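This part of the workshop introduces the protein records we will be handling. An example says more than a description, so a record of this kind follows:
>
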Amino acid sequence: MGKCKYITIFWLLLIAVLGASFSLFYPIKKTTFSLAVIPHFMIQSHKVDEFYALLKEKYYQTTTPDRIILLSPNHFFSEQKNLEGLCKTEKLFYKNDNLTWYTLNTDDIVCTWGVFYFRWEHKYVKDHGIWEHFRWINKYFPNVPVIPLAIPTHNMSVSKSLAEKIELLRWNTFIIASVDFSHYKPEQEAKQNDEISYATLSNIGNFVKLKSLDVDCPACLGVVYNLADKTNQKIQQRYRDSSSTIVGQDLWKENTSRQFLYWTTSL
């Protein structure tokens, strides 16, 4: 009995030593992520260009992300209750731009609807919340695998579940929420609504309030909000503008506003 005890102790010690050695030479990669909100309403594209350049400098000046996850509202299929994405690696086209896009291994993704569709031999993406980012990702993050996901815009349970899945990924992940803010409101009302949105995103415990914000994808914001909360990252605003401020007159019901946001671990 005593001999068995010593043998057991020996094997436990050996396993512990081997485990420590493995961790030393092959450390388990931690999940890390950078977070940003980049509008898909890309009027004044030089601002979009500058913001992508800023994010590249702040987050990936000396390295690159393992993956980019691009979150878009599902503009054209409001009845879709699930995430829509790709079920295999494919090259996606929009006009003359294209990117190789990847899938996220989860059973929650539906890939049989119309956001991604074939036209002759090429596969295209319908939603501008995704294709508007093609040129900028190609410019600043070439060759980085990108995962496109169209989210049911106000389904906050999907938002929460997706954030939990991203937390478990062993990647350095750059998450981009492709979100526009106030729609079809006069400038003064849009500005006030944007201030409410920013204040809501700036404070903890506000996840349930996101659904009522004047934005086109509260669920997209919910993903980055949850991940920022988990890692104690603080929101920063680079720009806030609108089609009205850009053209210099109040466009009223033709007005759309934007916020360019990112998160940092320290101020």
Notes: The CA atoms of residues 51 and 260 lie 7 Å apart. The two ends are 61 Å apart (CA to CA).
